[in-house]
Write a structure and sequence with these properties.
It contains eight helices and twelve strands. The protein is α+β, with helices and mostly antiparallel strands and 329 residues long. Among the domains are: 93 residues; 120 residues, Band 7 domain (Tetrahydropterin Synthase, Chain A), CATH 3.30.479. The longest helix has 25 residues. It is rod-shaped. It starts with a helix and ends in a 48-residue tail after the last helix. The N terminus is likely disordered.
């Protein structure tokens, strides 16, 4: 028994890491009494002469001779000799879904009528993927690589991502100045195209999203200004807000001549707005002004009033008041 135990070994993922998609066990010859250990989130694939012999998905500890070999395709009748073992490879697969953050390496020039040279745009977001086809993975990657990391997949994705962004942003005349509103459709199209590419390696894209589009600073300033103006509704109110922002930022001092002029202009605009509002409430009619009482015209050659301006006595057209003698005309 002691001699048998010295040949026993353990087959397990020795370099387990969350950033690794697969790892291949090729260290030693599998001896009689060897154990296979599968951890949660792992699959174990036995390879013999480069071909898949069997896939084991349930985590746990297994005796290779009694619990594994009977299920292998061409090795069901294999018998361990006293001094001989089985030379095979075991490919451990990480079954989890991976998430990476992506971002364009540089600005992507998207053709647009508004800018003859194209609109330089950057973008960033997240991408999800997982291994979906063991056979394709073994044929394309695992057959020649000892391990495969998340960073390797990220490089694979980012090499074609710029082209896909250009394709789906330009498709169907997207509003170049409001791409965020179309980000769902753009992301969906990119995910489908990416999945077609990565499926050639046995990997599926399970999710793709765009967090934000970034414009050149001068274009972003223009978009912000247009959005603010549209939100305000008219140029007059937009100018008021601009002046208020300038005062709040200290660009226009309250004690300066410019500050006083700004305050005066704001006051005049507010007064005009109030008068216009009052006029609208009154049906567009201007308020009538009270006419002053007509004063009698005195002096020679003047019109004779009907009543004496001194005592109020009727004048009856006379030039002098018959009651108080006041000259009337």
């Amino acid at each position: 028994m002691g001699l048998m135990n010295q040949f026993a070994n353990v087959v397990e993922w020795e370099e387990w890491s969350d950033d690794m998609l697969f790892w291949k066990w090729t260290n030693k010859e599998i001896k009689k009494g060897s154990k296979l250990i599968i951890k949660p989130g792992q699959d174990a694939i036995f390879l013999y002469n480069g071909k898949k012999e069997g896939v084991f998905e349930d985590d746990g500890e297994y005796d290779i001779e009694s619990q594994i070999i009977p299920f292998l395709s061409t090795l069901k009748g294999f018998k361990f000799g006293f001094n001989s073992g089985m030379r095979a490879e075991v490919l451990f697969i990480n079954t989890k879904e991976f998430t990476i953050k992506w971002g364009t390496k540089g600005p992507i020039n998207i053709p647009t009528p508004q800018m003859p040279g194209g609109m330089p745009i950057r973008a960033n977001g997240t991408c999800n993927f997982k291994i979906s086809d063991h056979d394709v993975l073994i044929e394309k990657i695992a057959g020649i690589k000892q391990q495969y990391k998340v960073e390797d997949v990220k490089i694979r994705i980012t090499t074609i991502l710029d082209q896909l962004l250009m394709k789906w942003i330009s498709k169907e005349g997207k509003d170049m100045f409001n791409l965020q509103a179309n980000s769902f459709d753009i992301s969906k199209g990119i995910q489908e195209d990416l999945d077609m590419e990565t499926s050639k390696d046995g990997i599926s894209i399970t999710g793709f999203s765009i967090n934000s589009f970034n414009y050149p600073q001068e274009v972003q300033d223009m978009i912000t200004k247009n959005a603010a103006q549209a939100m305000v509704g008219d140029v007059g109110r937009y100018q008021q807000i601009s002046m208020t922002d300038a005062m709040a930022d200290g660009k226009v001092g309250n004690n300066s001549t410019m500050g006083q002029m700004t305050e005066m202009m704001m006051g005049m605009q507010m007064a005009n707005t109030m008068m216009n509002n009052m006029g609208g409430m009154m049906g567009g009619q201007q308020p009538q002004q009270t006419q002053p009482a007509q004063q009698p015209v005195q002096g020679a050659g003047g019109a004779i009033p009907k009543f004496c301006p001194n005592c109020g006595q009727p004048t009856n057209g006379a030039k002098f008041c018959g009651n108080c003698g006041q000259q009337l005309g």
